[in-house]
């Protein structure tokens, strides 16, 4: 094997190993929200092991939010560090941070939020994981987005047949009720 092959193959193998396996769980920081039980700037990790609730593990405590109560997730860019009024981004791309805001309604109907600062890629992955767990049983958010096509309202295909069958049934029912009303 050539010298390039000896260097290139191990490099490619290391590049394919997910960073989460190498670095462990991503650390997130709670930076605010309506939850008083979590201390400000508490560091921990988000846990998706439970199929019913998102868990924030910090110190020796766990804060849980049921997926069905989550109403919205929003990602915003975190403020850059400033040195004498000059914004300075971090030099490493995985150190760029975003703030993930999770809005929810508790059982009493009160709206609440939790805000976590985490690396940019992790914020997108967390948002995707939450949307997948909130999707109706048997359907993921990716399939519901992929099933929306502008031509579905014009053409009947095997993918959208149930919608067309329902429209046909409703049209036939309304056509049957109109003549009986006019008599």
Would you write up a description of this structure?
There is one protein chain. With 183 residues, this protein is α+β, with helices and mostly antiparallel strands. The chain has two domains: 116 residues, PH-domain like (Roll); 36 residues, no CATH class. It is 34% helix and 31% strand. It has a seven-stranded antiparallel β-sheet with strand order 4-3-2-1-9-8-5, covered by helices on one side. The protein is flat. About 10% of the residues have low confidence.
Summarize the structure.
By secondary structure, the chain is an alpha+beta fold.
Tell me the layout of helices and strands.
Blueprint: H1 3-16, H2 19-23, E1 28-33, E2 42-47, E3 53-58, E4 61-66, E5 70-77, E6 81-83, E7 86-88, E8 97-105, E9 111-119, H3 120-134, H4 141-146, H5 161-182
Antiparallel strand pairs: 1-2, 1-9, 2-3, 3-4, 5-8, 6-7, 8-9
Number of strands: 9
- CATH architectural designation of the largest domain: Roll
Number of individual domains: 2
- For the record, the CATH class of the largest domain is Mainly Beta
Counting helices, strands and paired strands, the structural category is alpha+beta
Which terms summarize this structure?
183 residues, alpha+beta, PH-domain like, 2 domains, 7-stranded antiparallel β-sheet, two-stranded antiparallel sheet, 9 strands, 34% helix, flat
